[in-house]
Amino acid sequence: MRKELVVKDQSVDTSGITKDYREAIIEYIWNGFEANATEIIVSYVPNGIGGLDSLTIKDNGDGIPFDSLEDTFGAFLASTKNSLSLQLKTKANKGKGRFSCFSFATSVRWNTVVKLEGKNVEYNIDINGSNKNEYDFSAPIPTEKETGTVVTIYGIADVTEDSVQFEALEETLLQSFAWYLFLNREKDVVIVVNGEKIDYSKYIDEESSRKESITIDSHVFAVSVIVWEEKIRENFSSYYLDENGVLRGKDTTTFNRNTVNFNHSVYVKSSFFDNKENVTLTSSNSEIEGQTSLGDKDKATLRKLKKALQEIIGTLLKQHMTSQADKAIAAMIERDSFPHFGNSPYDQLRRNDLIRVSREIYCFEPRIFFKLRDVQEKSLLGFLNLLLSSEERENILTIIESVVELTPEQRAEFSLVLERTKLANIVETIHFVEERYKVIAGLKRILYELNDYANERDHIQEIIESNYWLFGEQYNLVSADQGMKRALSQYLYILYGEDAPEAKLLSDEQSNRRMDIFTCSKRKVENYSGNAEEENLVIELKAPNVILSKKVLRQIEDYMDFVRKQPQFNSQFRHWRFIAVCTAVDDDVRSRYDAQKASGKKGLVTKIDNYEIYALTWDDVFKSFELSHDFLLERLKVNKELISEELSAQTGTEPSRETVDSITSIII
């Protein structure tokens, strides 16, 4: 039977029907979902010359009701199905979807199975491109087939076989349907293209997305927040769906910021939106037609809903920014925007504090770092570092407020951030100082109380190897307790890598001498004339009972003479420090201090060119540490006595080799 199309307002050809075959496929897929389909299958029949003989979109929905053909097919631009549209568009398609194929095809057939008077019936609907103002339909006949509709498009031109492959359609279909597939995943809703299933997880960050239920004014709202893997074209919006999943309105979220790569959409389903049209709290929108006027009570409910949604999104955003912050901080470090810190543990504590605060600021308000030029970024981080290292730490909040406007809630939260990072830095610093004092307390007990049970090899040297900071934070441990030849070879390897020359030593007894600790500095330091030098350190350790005498000093002088003879080591740009350490210094050695008093260097006994020899007592070493850390001790109120007591409780107080061994194992 043939019937004419009732055209309202304008003809089919000038109605703005899509000219893109992909958009046409999307329209037919939406029609299937609007008919409650859970499976849409897109397939084609090739014509053998690279084109298509036909294109098919099949669904397992409810079919096209036979008794509503006049409304669904006969009334162009006035489709009743339009009011049930699931498409997230401000302007509905007004029934144009079924004519979408005529920009690239000549005819289309709908073969549909629908329930009629309790039984399934099947019939066809045909429209020909030569006369689009008419549609033809067959009489319904009983069938055993399941309900659903098969749309077959014929006479296809300008669409190649390659253009309808899975790879060619996947991106387009994900952009339109990923959200719908995700929200209806529990119903096993799928789209299959040429035998391959569209995977929404390629477009959606499932781990970051969230689904929850909230109740406001006795209304239950099912909230689904979708976080997109890629940037989306639309504004980040909250979409309001009624109990049947029909789109009833939308509002943008307040997170539409170019600075935050947090692409999201919110879908809210509730009976609250039943029988409402174009629900929004937007004050004015020229595209809204037929908007339902909300009463004060409904407006109040909607405002509460929006606030709840903002809190949910805000929580997810913080989680997202936490994962992104580390990447951003790493990029800043890579760009050399961070201030340079020394290798000392305290400098590293300051570095960690700056990283911690910068990360918190980035999570809290990434706009602060957005689109800064390199010099601006470096200046901002340098300024933050200065404030963190001063008494003006709390003034960071004032600086931030001069850059971005903060709400009272944000201001309070940021104050907590500063307190939290300050506390974390203090705790870390206290732990650092306490651990070092534990080492010193242990060494003092071994050297002064348990010296009869300790020796150089098993105790003193083991402790220093793990705690060489006692002689300078700037040194990197190269070797310990090795023959001179191997020590020098390792030294060369550090300097030159695989290209290191062989360490050629003299065949005298010096090559068999042992250096207990041999460290090498890689940092560049300036001498009195402003030239860069490289510092090296050689330490000779002796057992606790050994006095630093001329004999001990002679041994380290031999080390110095040996190094001076090596052509690899005698550059005037290398500075060498040789240190002999014992519990006490005899008068012969002490008399040499006066000869070097003019240098102002404590413990210096010999200086030849770039080579210096120091004679120190362990008390000198300990006191030097205390003086250099005095500012920390005063500010952090470290209880040295308590640390010593705790160490004694761990190791016991019995004078024995076992006690010395226990102390050594704890502090190395």
C-alpha-based Rg, rounded: 40 Å
How many helix segments? 16
Content of β-strand: 15-25%
Quote the CATH topology of the largest domain.
Trna Endonuclease, Chain: A, domain 1
State the share of residues found in helices, binned by percent.
25-40%
SS content category: alpha+beta
Shape-level CATH architecture of the largest domain: 3-Layer(aba) Sandwich
Q: What's the end-to-end separation, in Å?
A: 96 Å
What would you call the shape? elongated
- The CATH C-level name of the largest domain is Alpha Beta
Counted up, domains total 4
Summarize model confidence as the mean pLDDT. Answer: 79
What's the total count of β strands?
25
Largest sheet: 10 strands, mixed
> Uncertain regions: pLDDT < 50 for 5+ in a row?
76-95, 284-288
Q: What is this entry, summarized?
A:
With 668 residues, the chain is α+β, with helices and mostly antiparallel strands. It contains 16 helices and 25 strands.
What would you say this structure looks like, in words?
The chain is an alpha+beta fold and 668 residues long. The chain has four domains: 2-197, Histidine kinase-like ATPase, C-terminal domain (Heat Shock Protein 90, 2-Layer Sandwich), CATH 3.30.565.10; 204-283 and 290-319, no CATH class; 335-406; 436-667, 3-Layer(aba) Sandwich (Trna Endonuclease, Chain: A, domain 1), CATH 3.40.1350. It is 37% helix and 23% strand. It is elongated and about 125 Å long. Mean pLDDT is 79; it is low at 76-95 and 284-288.
